[in-house]
Write a structure and sequence with these properties.
Elements lengths: L2 H20 L9 E8 L5 E8 L3 H13 L1 H11 L7 E6 L2 H15 L16
Parallel strand pairs: 2-3
Antiparallel strand pairs: 1-2
Helix pairs in contact: 1-3
Length: 126
């Protein structure tokens, strides 16, 4: 599958899984949002990265709910997307939002009066 098509399929899977999770009925699942999807070159395996709000126990419970419902999510994807093969869905926890907030907090402690600003685009400081 060419790269442009893979990107379109990744985007479609991310949107559809997000919609499927919105109606997910497992009581263990807390607030979860799909942040990214990695798709194998043959589009048969989709790693779905989710950000979950809550403490570590709630995150583990939510991830367990997602993993146990992966077959349901795959079936729903098959109904909603027109693909030759419906990819196997593997859920992974994405903690990048929390890491970013922690870094921002640490920078705020280092520079309480004047936090550093990111370089302007096109400034050549990348």
């Amino acid at each position: 599958m060419d790269e442009a098509r893979l990107q379109r399929v990744r985007t479609a899977i991310r949107e559809e899984v997000g919609a499927i999770l919105h109606g997910f009925k497992d009581p263990r699942l807390g607030f979860a949002s799909v942040t990214d999807v990695e798709l194998s070159r043959d589009a048969r395996v989709a790693k779905v990265f989710v950000s979950i709000l809550g403490n570590d126990t709630e995150k583990e419970d939510s991830l367990a709910a997602l993993r146990s419902g992966a077959g349901y999510v795959r079936t729903e994807l098959g109904k909603r997307l027109t693909l030759r093969y419906t990819p196997e869905v593997i859920f992974r926890l994405d903690s990048s939002i929390e890491r970013g907030a922690r870094i921002q907090s640490l920078l705020g402690k280092l520079y309480p009066d004047d936090p550093p600003k990111p370089p302007a685009k096109g400034s050549g400081e990348e």
